[in-house]
Every structure is written in C-alpha cells, then in structure tokens.
Amino acid sequence: MELYDEKIEKEIFDSKIPVLVEFYAEWCEPCNVMKSMIEELKKELEGKVKVIALNIETNPKLADKFIVLSLPTFTVYRDGKREKTLVGIQKKETLLSLLS
C-alpha cells in the first residue's frame, strides 16, 4: 500500500490493528533486498497487522515527521502510538517478534 500525506494519519493512527510501516526508497539496495519478504508478511498477516510500505521520496514530509534517518526503517504502531523501531535489513522472524 503506497500512502500519501493526506492518508497517513487515518491509515496509521486510526487503525484498530497494529501497523508495521516500512520506510524505503527505490534506490535503496537494502530496501530492495527486503521487498519480497515484506510482501510475504503482508499476505501472512492480512487482517491481523496492517503492513504499509512508505516511499520517502514520494512522501518527504512524512520522512521528516517520522524522523527517518536511515533506510529501511521499520516502525510498529499500536493504538496510534509508535511502539518499536528497527533500522536496516531484518530477518522475517525479527519483524514477526516486533509485532508480537
């Protein structure tokens, strides 16, 4: 799911289920390494966790707002609040444990 500024608050902060946001860029090689695994997570967690890929190039204001300094950055939101953040290439198990 690609988001733009006007939808971010509703998608993340009003969600009734946990949200995993991946901040990425097309030019980011570590982000490209993570791409297929993020797609797997989206399918596996559908209905339980919202998985959102947020391109910082098309959403630079959001990258600033969320203080994204390195890519990829993975952040979990529950009940509209930032809960945990990881930076860099991650194992699938690590992201799943981040969500538990």
Annotation keywords:
alpha+beta; globular; 100 residues; Glutaredoxin; 25% strand
User: The CATH topology, please?
Assistant: Glutaredoxin
The overall pLDDT average reads 91
Shape: globular
CATH homologous superfamily name? Glutaredoxin
Structural class, from helix and strand content? alpha+beta
Question: How many distinct beta strands?
Answer: 4
Strand % is 25-35%
- Helical element count? 4
**Percent range for helical residues?**
25-40%
Straight-line N-to-C gap: 22 Å
Quick structural summary:
This protein has 4 helices and 4 strands; from the N terminus they run H-E-H-E-H-E-E-H. The chain has helices at residues 5-13, 29-44, 60-65, 92-99, and strands spanning 19-24, 50-55, 73-78, 81-87. A hairpin with a 2-residue loop joins strand 3 and strand 4.
How do the strands and helices of this protein lay out in sequence?
Layout: H1 5-13, E1 19-24, H2 29-44, E2 50-55, H3 60-65, E3 73-78, E4 81-87, H4 92-99
Parallel strand pairs: 1-2
Antiparallel strand pairs: 1-3, 3-4
How would you characterize the overall build of this protein?
By secondary structure, the chain is an alpha+beta fold. The protein has a 4-stranded mixed β-sheet, sandwiched between helices. The chain is built from 4 helices and 4 strands. The two termini are 22 Å apart. It has one domain (5-99): 3-Layer(aba) Sandwich (Glutaredoxin).
